[in-house]
Amino acid sequence: MRTSEQRMDGTGSTALPQVTLIQPPVTDASYPALPFSIEPLSLLVLAALTPKDAFRVKVLDGMLRGERRRLLDPASALVGITVVTPVRDAAYELAAWYRAKGVPVVLGGCHVTLDPEDARPHADAIVVGEAEEAWPRLLADFAAGRLKQEYRPAGPESFDVPAARALVSRYRMKYPFISIIQTTRGCPNTCEFCVPAATYGQRIRHRSVESVLDEIEQTRRRFRRKTFGFTEDNFFADRRYAVRLMEALVPLRIRWASQMCIDIAKDDAVLDLMVESGCFAAFFGFESPNQQALDEARKRADSREYPALIARVRARGILVIGSFTIGYDCDDDGVYDEMVSFCRQTAIEVPLFVSLMPYKGTALFDRLVRAGRLAPDARPGSNPLALNFEPSRLAARTFARNIARMYREYYDSGYLLRNLRHWFRRSHYKKCLLLIVLYLLYVTFARRIGRGAFLEKRAGRGAGGRG
Ligand code: SF4
Questions:
Q1: Does the beta carbon of 285 lie inside 6 Å of ligand 1?
Q2: Residue 158 resides in a domain
Q3: Which of 114, 223, 430, 436 is the S-S candidate for 361 at Cβ 3.0 to 4.6 Å?
Q4: What is the pLDDT of residues 32-62, one digit of tens each?
Q5: Into how many domains does the chain fold?
Q6: Pocket test residue of 185, 232, 236, 299 for ligand 1, highest count of atoms within 8 A of CB
Q7: Looking at residue 203, which CATH number applies to its domain?
Q8: Same-domain status, 445 and 310
Q9: Which pLDDT tens digit goes with each residue over 338-350?
Q10: Low pLDDT (below 70) residues in the chain
C-alpha cells in the first residue's frame, strides 16, 4: 500500500531514499501537546525544495497530539530537524536516536543559526542561516556521499518558494484554522531583544506578489482555506510592497492576520486597505506602555500614542493581539498592575504577557553577558514566566507569580463575555466566532498560565533566586 507521502509527492517509488523532516515537540510538561496546530512552514518549504526524482519526503509534526510516537521512523535515509530554543532538548534527543541507528541528521532553524556551537555536536551537518539555497546543495552532497559538517547560504537568499502543503494533508483536520505564508523577511528596526532582527537582518526582502497570490489560490482551491496568516515579523517592513500585496488580495476575499508595528495605524488609507483586503486581526509588539522601557529596548515607538492608535485599529473592526514584555531595567514591582490596567483601558482583545527573553545572538543577550547578569541555566523561550537574568529593580522571587496573576486578572471569567458583547453590539458576528476560536487558541493557553501551569517548573529557577 502506498503511503500518503508517496501519493502526494507523485513519485510513488519506495526505492527512493526517504528524507524525514521533523518538527520536534516541546517536551516541557507545562506545554500540552495540542489536538490542533499550525502547519510547520519551514519544513514544508524544505520539502518543496527536495528533488522528487531523487528522494521521498515525509514531514512529521511533533507539536500535534498523537504524533510524537511517530517521530522515530526507521525508514529514514536522512533526517532534517528544525530547532527553536524551546524544543532544543527534544531535537537533540531525536537526533541522538537517529544517529545511533546510523541515519545522518541535519539540524537547522533559528536556534542553530543563533547558536551553531550548541547544535554542532548533535548533528552530522548543520545549516546556519536561511536554508532555501543550502538545502538542495546539501541533498546533492548527501546523494554523492560527501555530506559536509556545515552549510551556509552562498549568496543573497531568495525565499520565493511555495510550501509543499500537500505533504501534510493527512493532518488537515489538525491544522483547521489557518494556513501560513511568509512574504517578507527583514526589518529596518533594531529592537534589542529581537530574534528575527538577529537572523534576517535589516535588509528587507520579499516574495513576488504573483507567487504569494498563486500559493493562496492553490491552498484555497485544494484545501478550501479562506484564512491566512502572514508570518513576517513586520508586515509593513516595506510599506510599498505591503500595499501592493493588499491591493492584490482584495478580489480574493480571504481573511488574513499578521504582525506589524502599531505606527501603521496613523495611516487611514492603509487601515482602510487592510480592512478591504480582509485583515481580521493584527499582532502588535507593544512591549510596554512605559516609554523608558521602549527606549531601553531600542523600540522605535511612542507609548503615549498607543491608546489612540489601538482605538483606530479596533474602530476598523480589526482584533488587536498585543505582546507585552516584562523585565526591563526600568521595570519595578508596579509594572504588573500598570500593564493590566493599560490593557483594560485600551480594551486589547488578546494581550500576552511574557518575560523579556535574552535569546543567544541578540543584542540583549550580549549586553547581559557583558554585565554578568545572565543566569547560568538561562533557557529563554522554554517558560514564558521565567526571568532568565538578574533583574535590575524587579523582585525575582515573585516575578513568575506576578505574571501568572496578570493573566488571571485579565482573562477572568467575564473576559469572553465582555469582548463578545463589544463585537456583537457592532454587528461583527463573524468576529464573535473568531474571538471564540482565538479564545480556544491563545486564551486557553493564557488561562493555563494564569492557573500557574508554569509556576512550579522553571520559573524562579531561571531567576536563580537572585532578587
Ligand atoms: S520592529 Fe518588530 S521585527 Fe522589527 S526589530 Fe523590532 S521587534 Fe523585531
A1: yes
A2: no
A3: 114
A4: 566 678 889 999 999 999 999 999 999 999 9
A5: 2
A6: 299
A7: 3.80.30.20
A8: yes
A9: 999 999 999 999 8
A10: 1-14, 27-35, 156, 382, 441-444, 446-447, 450-467
